[in-house]
Structure to design on (356 residues):
């Protein structure tokens, strides 16, 4: 728990608290006005009981501020993880996707897993140091969608983590060196071409695919050529249309969209990595994609033998993802509004533009 946390009752049904801060999902809110960036979902019984996962949202387009709290709730309620979901905020304390205003990442010190869905971030130095410390100890990482280009840092002690870093010792930064690939380019047209995710025949028995079928992603394809040592699990079939039964684009080859690898931190410890170039909030609606990511979390922390193909991966509380777009996020939402198991992610009453 955060050192400055104070326990206060809150209503998980209403998702409202008396002050901005850390809000937990068990009916008790551990609140700290100094750290308004996080919502906590306390784990209970489950195969991952006692494991701690930190999820960091902060992309501009694909609505990770919806995807990650929904995923965090599933991991906590269904599997026992203690989940801490962090958001970037504006000056008033409302969620602002793509802002670099974040605090509280010291929670990574005791985390067993880091899940990120961020884009071109330049976090405050003391917060970025917590990320670096986690990587230095070889902590497991799951990177979704734009996390291949997670950081854009022009100068200073963390410049080498930038997606376009040119130094040979850490070429293309965190994306390439940890996740296995940096930003290359689109390979399909968003909102016109969706993707069918096809496990490779020789990897279909991987624990991450246990119980997984019929994966379809609303997000368009990315070009990706994972670094040597990456184990490609699935490729993407770009479709001419947004439905799972849309016809394939026969002019596009199948490129890697899901892979695993390991990386070594400065400690010499190797950490497991799962990367997918898909991961818009709408993608989580697909049960196959959702189960794959949940399975990946269990695999990443070494619980692959506990992956049950029939485990419950249903959403916890209402899930109302918007159609992803730049700047198309729900306004006026604080992390504390997402506390509890039953509050909506997010309320359909919140506007998606600043226009009255």
């Amino acid at each position: 728990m955060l050192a400055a946390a104070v326990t206060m009752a809150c209503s998980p049904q209403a998702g409202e608290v008396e002050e901005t801060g850390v809000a937990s999902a068990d009916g008790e809110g551990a609140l700290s006005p100094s750290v308004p960036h996080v919502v906590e979902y306390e784990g209970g019984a489950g195969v991952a009981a006692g494991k701690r996962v930190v999820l960091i949202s902060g992309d501009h387009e694909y609505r990770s501020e919806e995807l990650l709290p929904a995923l965090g709730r599933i991991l906590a309620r269904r599997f026992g993880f203690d989940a801490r979901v962090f958001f970037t905020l504006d000056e008033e304390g409302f969620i602002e996707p793509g802002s670099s205003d974040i605090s509280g990442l010291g929670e990574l010190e005791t985390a067993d897993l880091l899940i990120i869905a961020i884009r071109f971030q330049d976090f405050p130095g003391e917060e970025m140091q917590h990320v670096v410390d986690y990587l230095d100890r070889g902590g497991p990482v799951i990177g979704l969608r734009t996390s291949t280009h997670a950081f854009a840092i022009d100068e200073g002690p963390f410049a080498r983590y930038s997606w376009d870093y040119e130094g040979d010792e850490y070429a293309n930064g965190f994306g390439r060196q940890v996740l296995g690939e940096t930003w290359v380019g689109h390979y399909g047209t968003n909102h016109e071409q969706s993707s069918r995710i096809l496990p490779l025949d020789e990897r279909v028995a991987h624990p991450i695919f246990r119980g997984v079928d019929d994966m379809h992603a609303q997000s368009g394809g990315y070009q990706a050529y994972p670094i040597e040592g990456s184990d490609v699990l699935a490729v993407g079939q770009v479709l001419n249309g947004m439905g799972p039964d849309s016809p394939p684009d026969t002019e596009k080859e199948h490129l890697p969209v899901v892979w695993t690898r390991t990386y070594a931190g400065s400690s010499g410890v190797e950490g497991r990595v799962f990367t997918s170039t898909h991961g818009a909030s709408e993608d989580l609606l697909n049960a196959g994609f959702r189960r794959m990511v949940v399975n990946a979390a269990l695999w990443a922390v070494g619980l692959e033998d506990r992956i049950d193909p029939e485990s419950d991966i249903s959403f916890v509380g209402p899930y109302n993802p918007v159609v992803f777009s730049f700047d198309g996020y729900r306004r006026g939402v604080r992390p504390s509004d997402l506390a509890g198991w039953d509050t909506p992610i997010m309320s359909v009453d919140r506007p998606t533009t600043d226009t009255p």
The two ends are 39 Å apart (CA to CA). The CA atoms of residues 143 and 275 lie 5 Å apart.
